[in-house]
Design a protein that fits this description.
This protein has about 220 residues and is of the alpha+beta class. The chain is about 30% helix and about 25% strand.
């Protein structure tokens, strides 16, 4: 759904949403291109529809990208470009809340940039990032990559690093994480990275610390 303002990041579970994932030519949302975009539509916690398209980036795919996602130049040679695929993706997501892993720092930035370039508007859908959500629900898990979440819940990762398979894995993890009991997690959001803040104890008493630690070291005193 297009609009003048970018959607807001939310932190609470919703039962109707669209999980989406991108495969790209690299890790820079400012300079790299989408080569695959996939999504699954979920109503009441159940997948009801799927969307998946290869995208011709109109540039060679670097070998290091192919090594991760197994998408080659030959595979996308006859695929539509992003200006053809994006309208289909927007029609698919409608006004649903978008869900994805690490989308706050990665996938949303691609989508925002492309829509602003093509339409002079942006994606107004609210979104939930399952990376900080997993830190909130599973604070004792050593790592919070999607593959780590899948391993924790004994979910098969066969076909991981292709967009549609990652969407399906993420949707299963998201539903299972929602059933976890929060542990000392506040409703406060870190102003630096968007993760939840957790109540912690220090030498001077209790304080709020970012669940994104050690990547993010934001703290907040309790008044």
């Amino acid at each position: 759904m297009l609009g003048k303002m970018r959607g807001k990041q939310i932190n609470k579970y919703i039962s109707n949403y669209v999980v989406f994932d991108l495969e790209t030519t690299g890790v820079s949302p400012s300079n790299d291109s989408i080569i695959e975009i996939s999504a699954v539509k979920v109503n009441n916690g159940v997948i009801v529809d799927e969307f998946s398209k290869l995208v011709n980036p109109l540039r060679p795919i670097p070998p290091q990208a192919t090594a991760v996602n197994n998408i080659t130049d030959e595979m996308v040679a006859n695929s539509p470009s992003i200006d053809e695929v994006m309208p289909e993706f927007l029609n698919f997501i409608e006004d649903y809340t978008l869900v994805g892993h690490n989308i706050h720092c990665f996938d949303m930035k691609y989508i925002w940039r492309i829509c602003e370039m093509l339409y002079d508007e942006t994606v107004a859908n609210n979104y939930l990032d399952t990376l900080p959500f997993s830190r909130k629900k599973l604070p004792n898990l050593a790592k919070h990559r999607l593959t780590d979440l899948a391993a924790h819940y004994n979910i098969s990762t066969e076909g991981a690093h292709r967009a549609l398979n990652d969407c399906i894995i993420n949707q299963k993890c998201f539903e299972l994480m929602e059933k976890e009991i929060d542990q000392n997690i506040s409703e406060k959001t870190c102003p630096k990275c968007g993760s939840q803040l957790k109540l912690r104890n220090g030498i001077y008493g209790e304080f709020y610390g970012c669940t994104g630690f050690p990547a993010c070291r934001y703290t907040e005193n309790i008044k």
